[in-house]
Design brief:
By secondary structure, this protein is an alpha+beta fold. The protein is built from 16 helices and 19 strands. The strands form five sheets. The chain has a five-stranded antiparallel β-sheet with strand order 2-1-5-4-3. Strands 7-6-10-9-8 form a five-stranded antiparallel β-sheet. Strands 12-14-15-17-16 form a five-stranded mixed β-sheet.
Amino acid sequence: MGKSITLPDGTLSVNQAFADMLGYSIDELNALNWKDITPAEDIPWIEELLEPLIQNRSNSLRFTKRYAHKNGSTVWADVSISTRYNEDNSLRHFIATIVDISQARSTEQKYQTLFSEMLNAMAIHEIILDETGKPVDYRFLDVNPAFERMTSLKKEDVIGKTVLEILPGTEDYWIQTYGRVALTGEPAFIAEYSKALDKYFEVTAYRHAEGQFVCIFTDVSQRKRMEAERVKLQEQVQQAQKMQSIGRLAGGVAHDFNNMLGIIIGHAEMVTEQLRPADPIYADIMQIRQAAKRSADITRQLLAFASKQNISPREMDLNLLIADLLKMLRRLIGENVELGFRPHPEPCVVTMDPSQIDQILVNLCVNARDSISAEGSITIETGIISSCGTKLQDSGLLAEQECVVLRVSDTGCGMDSATLAKMWEPFFTTKELGKGTGLGLATIYGIVQQNHGHIAAESAPGEGTRITISLPRVMHPVGSQDYAVPRLIKGDEHILVVEDEVSILNMTCRMLEKMGYQVMASADATQALELAKNPDTPH
């Protein structure tokens, strides 16, 4: 510890420790004035500090000052001064005790540089406790520039204030966690979302001093958003793979399954033609026929969902087609539900298979009807938008392309977000067992995708549901708008039927013969060619 006696004229009398501190010998240092070992720019303010001691208005002083080392470097010191006076109260000399704090000062300066320049946000806080010792708030003592950039909070606005004054929405979780750090000294690592700042943070917190803690923040909001987007993309890929798998399944079994169903339905129809409704087995045959048709419908829905259904696209005006369907749809939904149609004044022409529009409207109207517990309404609307917008481009629609909009709204019970997220998945249904297959909406989704359109749903519990379908608009329609179903034809011509499934071959021949045709049958392609060349050959 350095010691020095300084006379009023500034001359020194020092000990060895002080001489060593500044790199001088005792004799060298005693030959100097205190101003010789003090940076020139510091002399005025030190003289001002010493003035009350010289005038005997104070007899002690403590301050931090710089000394000039013999080698030109700077030595920081904590200086304590006391005075001795003559009998006439004039100053005899100063007695100074000098403690070298250069290392501590260097460490502090490095800390201040790190504090100011570090990229991570840093804040020093003081925990606030209630009368029971429970953490209830914390106060800002200091923040670095990175904290200001990361949070958009200015240093001058937060220092001295509590977090609940600055961010009233701060969750109690943060206060209690930081309280444990300040009170126990146990560091904490937190990775949480801050509602108050609407950001995700990774925070390292440790105790700085008694009742204080330091937080180092890293903003990971962008990373979290990217992770969420990655999860969303993975879900979309899984959904696409699921659809592809079901499509392969449907395509693989559809042929054989439809053959079997065709045999069941065909024979059931032929049997019912020979029975009267009063016959004991008539109701049983009708049940067989109905179950088979329902199975065929499920297969058809699977094929439509997988985009493997044979379709015949044509230009058609949705307004005309929907108007023709309204009578059937009203019978389907019942008397308790009002069905309204609001067609766009201009033709809404798209290129699709009319049967697909039938499937879409029947499925949507049935779902809407089932969501209405008592009385309610279903509204079908058509419209035209001049620009599909960038948000629909993922479906193949162009941003500047005109679209026809088909919208079905209902006043039913609505859906929550969890149901909305799964509504297009195959086999997902909220209906009771036996009331739904979970393929209706998946079928619609597949149809819309197959026709390069876009489908979206809006719903909330108690607020009904609105399904919006956007399809490419045909700007210059050509051709006929005839959607009439061809009538059953009868005749007496010769028909060659070729089918390798014997059961289907026999059933088809019987049906054609009942319609008056002369039928030649073959289960073999080579034989069929021979029959075609020589139809009069016995077979």
